């Protein structure tokens, strides 16, 4: 008779003669777990067999007696036995009962090491998700405060109303979305493009993965900005390519004495992380270098919409006289939100089929509901409105940050303030790592340029991403930065004046 009131049915107190006492394992069924009782029993017996706790040819208790000992109906046991017999874990024969099959047990519990040849890679070179409270000057994020919730809901309602298709979509992206993105990049970044030029991607890193696997020959040499975007650099390395550091100055990449390369990766609108903008003469020189060396230019324009009083500079892709060498990468992660995981590639006609092939073999294209929602936002002008709101929001945060940090001159000075969503605070005499550690103790979290650099000659600077901050947070964080830098600079005139005044008051 079943003991229906007992949620957990253990076996430690099985009386003499109880079939459970003869088993070398303990069985227990939990009525409140949500998992069917027969599944629980089958799982426990299966794991015991695999671990060797139930040896081969061991005869198990009859279904009636085991059910009585467990306090369940006979059907629970017979169903569990049947499942294990069907998969070969147990065998059953008339007159012989139910026995453990001759299986090779696991010597130990399953491990996490994997095959002997597997070498675990290091963690990806990206910042961890924000978990601690405090003020996080994190790069690569943006605010969601400027989203029009009504327009957002309408876009997803439109996507839901499109119905469900039973086939795969175009791996390059829906033509209507590609056309809308081409129009958007034309009016926002000055790059003429058509729907046929655009490939919808799942963001910048996927675009790079398509390029390095679909276009570049194996073991290619690639020039990469130093300092630069860590995750992008790792994409090239993990794909088996050789990455050479590309030095920079205030006008962009230095093109003298460079090794031969198949491609060069640049962020000309707002270099990440230095924040400099590639000058027009340097852009033309880079295009000339690529033509001379038969190389591709990968232009990552990750936040080209955000400029603050600075005149727009034409994308490299728009300056190219003979189309075919520049791959232009854009993303909606900073413009809209990283949550939609959507970007785009503007590619020359000769290279597009290889990129589409790579996308097809990777995941067969972008999720249709996401494409439909973004199409609605683009074609109804909502994305343009959002960009204008976001530009005003970020401009106010940037103005607050620059005003507060201006007090540190000449000990520290900002650079990269003309565009983008981050700035560099260049420190004259202080160790950026020590400043970073001191700020963390006060609940303010920053990065240093060293984290994005390879080799020597790293600039002493903090990297301050403000895309995810409010004006109030930027002000509070900047004040803490000022305090820490002054405290760590005893010869600072303002600190010395304050100290002398305090000493006179005490005297």
Automatic annotation (TrEMBL):
Record has Transcription regulation as a keyword: yes
Note the SUPFAM superfamilies from the entry.
Answer: PLP-dependent transferases, Winged helix' DNA-binding domain
Cite the HTH gntR-type domain residue spans from the record.
35-103
Q: Which UniProt keywords apply?
A: DNA-binding, Pyridoxal phosphate, Transcription, Transcription regulation
Q: The organism sits in which domain of life? A: Bacteria
* Similarity comment: In the C-terminal section; belongs to the class-I pyridoxal-phosphate-dependent aminotransferase family.
Put simply, this protein is called: HTH-type transcriptional regulatory protein GabR
Recall the taxonomic lineage recorded for the source organism.
Bacteria, Thermotogati, Deinococcota, Deinococci, Deinococcales
UniProt lists the gene as gabR_1
């Amino acid at each position: 008779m079943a003991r229906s009131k007992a949620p957990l049915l253990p076996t430690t107190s099985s009386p003499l003669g109880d079939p459970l006492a003869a088993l070398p394992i303990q069985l227990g069924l939990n009525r409140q777990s949500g998992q069917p009782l027969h599944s629980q029993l089958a799982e426990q017996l299966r794991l015991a067999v695999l671990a060797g706790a139930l040896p081969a040819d061991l005869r198990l208790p009859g279904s009636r007696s085991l059910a009585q000992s467990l306090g369940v109906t006979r059907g629970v046991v017979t169903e569990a036995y049947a499942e294990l017999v069907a998969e070969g874990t147990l065998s059953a024969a008339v007159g012989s009962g139910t026995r453990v099959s001759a299986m090779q047990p696991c010597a130990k519990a399953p491990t996490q090491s994997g095959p002997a040849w597997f070498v675990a890679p290091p963690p990806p070179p990206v910042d961890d998700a924000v978990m601690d409270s405090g003020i996080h000057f994190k790069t690569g994020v943006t605010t969601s405060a400027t989203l029009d919730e009504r327009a957002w809901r309408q876009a997803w309602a439109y996507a839901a109303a499109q119905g469900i298709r039973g086939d795969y979509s175009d791996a390059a992206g829906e033509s209507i979305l590609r056309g809308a993105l081409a129009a958007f990049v034309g009016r926002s970044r000055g790059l003429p493009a058509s729907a046929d030029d655009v490939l919808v991607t799942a963001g910048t890193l996927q675009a790079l993965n398509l390029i390095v696997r679909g276009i570049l020959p194996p073991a290619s040499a690639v020039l990469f900005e130093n300092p630069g975007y860590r995750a992008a650099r790792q994409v090239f390395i993990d794909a088996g390519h050789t990455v050479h550091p590309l030095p920079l100055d205030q006008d962009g990449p230095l093109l003298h004495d460079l090794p031969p390369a198949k491609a060069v990766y640049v962020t000309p609108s707002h270099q990440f992380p230095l924040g400099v903008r590639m000058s027009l003469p340097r852009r033309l020189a880079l295009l000339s270098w690529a033509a001379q060396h038969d190389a591709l230019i990968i232009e990552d324009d990750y936040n080209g919409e955000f400029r603050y009083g600075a005149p727009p500079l034409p994308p490299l892709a728009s300056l190219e006289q003979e189309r075919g060498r520049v791959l232009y990468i854009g993303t909606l992660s900073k413009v809209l939100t990283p949550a939609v995981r959507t970007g785009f590639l503007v590619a020359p006609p000769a290279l597009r089929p290889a990129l589409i092939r790579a996308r097809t073999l990777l995941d067969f294209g972008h999720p249709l509901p996401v494409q439909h929602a973004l199409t609605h936002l683009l074609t109804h002008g909502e994305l343009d409105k959002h960009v204008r709101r976001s530009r005003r929001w970020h401009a106010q945060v940037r103005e607050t940050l620059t005003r507060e940090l201006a007090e540190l001159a000449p000990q520290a000075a900002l650079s990269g303030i003309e565009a983008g969503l981050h700035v560099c605070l260049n420190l004259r005499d202080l160790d950026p790592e020590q400043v970073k550690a001191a700020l963390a103790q006060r609940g303010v979290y920053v990065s240093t340029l060293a984290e994005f650099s390879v080799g020597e000659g790293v600039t002493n600077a903090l990297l301050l991403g403000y895309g995810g901050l409010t004006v109030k947070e930027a002000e509070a964080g900047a004040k803490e930065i000022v305090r820490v830098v002054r405290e760590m600079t005893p010869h600072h005139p303002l600190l010395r004046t304050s100290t002398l005044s305090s000493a006179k008051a005490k005297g």
